[in-house]
Amino acid sequence: MPERCGAAVRAAAVSDLDAMMFLDSLVSANPWSRQSLARYCEPAPADSHCAFVCEVSLSFSGFLIYSRLLDEANIDNVAVSPHYQGRGFGRALLLTALDNMCAIGLKRCMLEVRESNVAARALYENNGFVIDGVRPQYYKTQQGREDALLMSRRL
Ligand SMILES: CC(C)(COP(=O)(O)OP(=O)(O)OC[C@H]1O[C@@H](n2cnc3c(N)ncnc32)[C@H](O)[C@@H]1OP(=O)(O)O)[C@@H](O)C(=O)NCCC(=O)NCCS
């Protein structure tokens, strides 16, 4: 189990689902359903769905989920508990997931992020992701809609 920034990052289990759902509901305006998150925590054929969780002194502090298609990965969600944000745990989760993708032979990692999400964009940009497209007006906001930035990096 790799340890980064004092946080232990490990593969998620079905028993982590409640904590993942609770955290997602704290940081997202559109939290994922149990069924959608469960796919990432259950053993998946050909590693099609993967999830990692981050703990500090056994306290659940974050998670990252990604899906795989052929030799590409897509980061589908990452969340760090508000209490633990800004302490390097998002980076620890991302680096562990990228290591895992490399270890299973994936070649590219992609993701989508709200244009206004400064923290997430910094996390990705500081770890090798570049913007290679825009989905105009993709996300709902309280005021209307905003663009999704499409980002990727080689593994
Ligand atoms: C995005 C998120 C996962 C980042 O996790 P985190 O643990 O706070 O991030 P870290 O402390 O690991 O910081 C990672 C990098 O981003 C930068 N960063 C983090 N928050 C930032 C902010 N608010 N403004 C600018 N930069 C920021 C850090 O400086 C750090 O850069 P470094 O690696 O060069 O030091 C977290 O803010 C979160 O859960 N947000 C809500 C959910 C969300 O938006 N998920 C992303 C969906 S695409």
Strand content: 35-45%
Low-pLDDT sequence parts: none
Output the helix-strand order: EEHHEEEHEHEE
For the largest beta sheet, what order do the strands appear in spatially? 1-2-3-4-5-6-8-7
Distance between the termini: 21 Å
The ligands found in this model are: coenzyme A
Query: Structural class from helices and strands?
Result: alpha+beta
Please provide the count of β strands. 8
Query: What radius of gyration results from the CA coordinates?
Result: 15 Å
Q: Helical segment tally?
A: 4
CATH architecture assignment of the domain at 3-110: 3-Layer(aba) Sandwich
Q: Which overall shape is indicated by the principal axes computed on the Cα atoms?
A: globular
Question: What is the helical fraction, as a range of percent?
Answer: 25-40%
CATH class of the domain at 3-110: Alpha Beta
Briefly note the CATH topology name of the domain at 3-110: Aminopeptidase
CATH superfamily heading of the domain at 3-110: Gcn5-related N-acetyltransferase (GNAT)
Mind sketching the topology for me?
Layout (H helix, E strand, L loop, with lengths): L2 E2 L2 E5 L5 H11 L6 H8 L7 E8 L2 E11 L2 E9 L8 H15 L4 E7 L3 H8 L4 E11 L4 E10 L1
Parallel strand pairs: 5-6
Antiparallel strand pairs: 1-2, 2-3, 3-4, 4-5, 6-8, 7-8
Bound molecules: coenzyme A.
EC number: 2.3.1.266
Main location: cytoplasm
Subcellular location: Cytoplasm
